[in-house]
């Protein structure tokens, strides 16, 4: 469990991990505690993430905290007012400027807590996350449970063939997998394709 620093200075925390690893729940836990400490909390999310409620940050277990959807990360600087703590959810969907925005907020003395997917479904670093992780003071990497073997999962496996990095979906489209199961699936698919090719070429096995 992450123990919040108690000094009143600006810094950046990043909560990252695969899908279903509990990132939003952890973000909400920290923000709730800040609220209990009578700090002014504001939460922003990219306007692109419309999977649930328009104005609520909603985690997978339906815990709600009201949040402000913004089209561009720079809008956060305009809307932030006198917050002590700023949450940035689904940070991977923000534009590249979100890193500068988080640093600007931290320089103003704000505690920034950002949550996002570190890798996309191809296992590649997701959008602004690598830079955000590099400049952050505190990083928490969470894991889900692999749906194939029960080990800790670090990858988000896309179950159907849909092109594009930004495809919103839930358990219908994605499942958490450990490194081994994530990669073994692709090998199985490749083998099948080769076998099919051979049979269509008339090479009987
Ligand atoms: Zn596994």
What is the overall shape?
globular
Helix content: 25-40%
- The fraction of residues in strands falls at 15-25%
Q: Give the low-confidence spans.
A: 189-194
Number of beta-strand segments: 12
Radius of gyration: 19 Å
| Main β-sheet, spatial strand arrangement | 5-2-6-7-1-8
* Number of structurally distinct domains: 1
The ligands found in this model are: zinc ion
What top-tier CATH class fits best? Alpha Beta
Major beta-sheet overview: 6 strands, parallel
CATH topology: Rossmann fold
Structural classification:
alpha/beta
In DSSP terms (H or I, runs of 4 or more residues), the helix count works out at: 5
| Proper CATH architecture | 3-Layer(aba) Sandwich
Distance between the termini: 54 Å
Q: Superfamily at the CATH H level? A: P-loop containing nucleotide triphosphate hydrolases
Order of helices and strands: EHEEEEHEHEHEEEEEH
Average pLDDT metric: 85
Topology:
Blueprint (H helix, E strand, L loop, with lengths): L10 E7 L5 H14 L4 E6 L9 E3 L5 E3 L1 E3 L3 H6 L5 E4 L9 H10 L3 E7 L11 H7 L2 E5 L1 E2 L6 E2 L1 E4 L15 E4 L1 H22 L5
Parallel strand pairs: 1-7, 1-8, 2-5, 2-6, 6-7
Antiparallel strand pairs: 3-4, 9-10, 11-12
Helix pairs in contact: 3-4
The structure holds zinc ion.
Zinc ion (ZN) binds next to helix 5.
């Amino acid at each position: 469990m992450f123990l919040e620093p108690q000094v009143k200075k600006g810094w950046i925390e990043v909560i990252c991990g695969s899908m279903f690893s509990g990132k939003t729940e952890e973000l909400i836990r920290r923000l709730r505690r800040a609220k209990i400490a009578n700090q002014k909390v504001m939460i922003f999310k990219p306007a692109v993430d419309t999977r649930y409620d328009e104005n609520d940050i909603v985690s997978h277990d339906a815990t709600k905290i009201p949040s402000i959807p913004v089209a561009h990360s720079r809008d956060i600087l305009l809307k932030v007012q006198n917050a002590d703590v700023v949450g940035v959810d689904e940070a991977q969907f923000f534009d590249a400027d979100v890193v500068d925005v988080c640093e600007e907020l931290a320089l103003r003395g704000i505690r920034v807590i950002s949550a996002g997917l570190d890798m996309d479904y191809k296992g590649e670093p997701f959008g602004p996350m690598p830079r955000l992780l590099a400049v952050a003071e505190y990083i928490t990497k969470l894991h889900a449970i692999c749906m194939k073997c029960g080990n800790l999962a670090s990858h988000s496996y896309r179950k159907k063939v849909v092109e594009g990095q930004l495809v919103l979906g839930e358990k219908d489209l994605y499942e958490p997998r450990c490194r081994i199961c994530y990669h073994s699936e692709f090998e199985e698919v490749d083998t099948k394709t080769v076998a099919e090719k051979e049979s269509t070429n008339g090479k009987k096995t």
